[in-house]
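Worked Example 4.2. Consider the chain below.
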Amino acid sequence: MDRNLFNVNLAEITIQYSNRVKASERQKIRCSQDAERILRAIFPSLEHREYFYMLCLNRSNQLLGYHQVSMGGISGTVTDIRIIFQTAIKANASAIIIAHNHPSGNTQPSDADFALTTKIREAGKIVDIVVLDHLIITAEQYLSLADENILA
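Applying the procedure from the previous section yields the following structure tokens:
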């Protein structure tokens, strides 16, 4: 059928992931300290506003890339789970590590942090993408929910 007969304007949806790092040069994440080191290098600030980032990993836990999921204010940021998994699927990730900072300097997870982590993990199960860890980072320290057996 000739599509020109309908004379309809349509928006094209494109999905793109651009990886310029050779597979042999990808950083491997073996523990929370590896993830923390990478995240500290990409967070624009740890003390002035809250950010939420994610790391996308392949089946060998090699870093495929990172993405800033959200940027908020001093006391919080809105994190959309759909954006997390859009990004992970675009990158063909097998696993993700999520992280956000607490400008207050307190690494203690809030009830909202626990609830969000649970929702993200449950969504990951549906699309077969494992949430390996959720890090809370401050200027001086960090907390790994996996290291604390909160993700178990």
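The longest strand covers residues 63-71. DSSP finds three helices and five strands in the chain. Compare this with Example 4.1 before moving on.
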